Amino acid sequence: MKLSLRMRSGARLAFNTLLQRGFYLTGPAGLTVREFLRRVVGYDDECIDGEVRTIFLNSSPMDGIDETHVKEGDRLALGSAMPGLVGICMGRDNPYKSFRSDIACDKDDVGKSGERVSVFVKIFSVLAVDTGADILASGIEVDCGVLADLLEKEAENYVADAGRDAAEVIADLRSSGGRVEVAVVFS
Question: What HEC string does 113-177 produce?
Fold first, then answer.
């Protein structure tokens, strides 16, 4: 199922919460984390090197975004700089990364090219605020029930499209089950 939503700007905070809760993005197999961030998430190198200061791959902090590849079912959490000593230690490419060497993500082998991989992504903090609208406009994949719940809470911010009101969209989502590809634009 594919869906395009137009929402009033008042719903932006709720959709930032959705970005923190998590969503799926699909891209070609064989991409490094940096390539995935560029080609699938839509970040440029300036954003990746300047704003994306914390990256966890499958719950492990990582530094080697040019050597580590995303694979089917991976979980990627992205954030800006985290506060405090723990935040500094968990951040990418810092002088204190040796404090977390036992839990850090290892470099790996390249996945099979030609295939598509689905990666579960979470985006936190200022990074979600700064980049969320662009990611949502490009489209994400979420569980139908999660999107239906969000639309129920934000129904007053839904802008009717093609004569369908929020209740109809919510009913379709609830009856579909599974995941939905959704692009969201704020007006």
Answer: CCCEEEEEEEECHHHHHHHHHHHHHHCEEEEHHHHHHHHHHCHHHEECECCECHHHHHHHHHHHC
Residues 53-71 have pLDDT tens digits of 888 899 888 888 998 899 9
Place of tokens 């975004």: 65
Which single residue is written with the structure tokens 């490094």?
32
Residue 103: per-residue pLDDT: 45
3-state secondary structure of 39: helix
Query: How distant is the alpha carbon of residue 170 from its chain centre?
Result: 22
* Paired tokens of 87: 């935040």
Q: State pTM to two decimals.
A: 0.85
Strands 2-7, 179-186: parallel, antiparallel or unpaired by DSSP? parallel
Residue 95, pLDDT > 80, answer: no
Tokens 């994400």 -> residue: 140
Q: Domain map of the chain by residue range? A: 2-186
Helix axes 12-21, 144-153, angle to 10 degrees: 150
- Cβ contact 83:38 at 8 Å: no
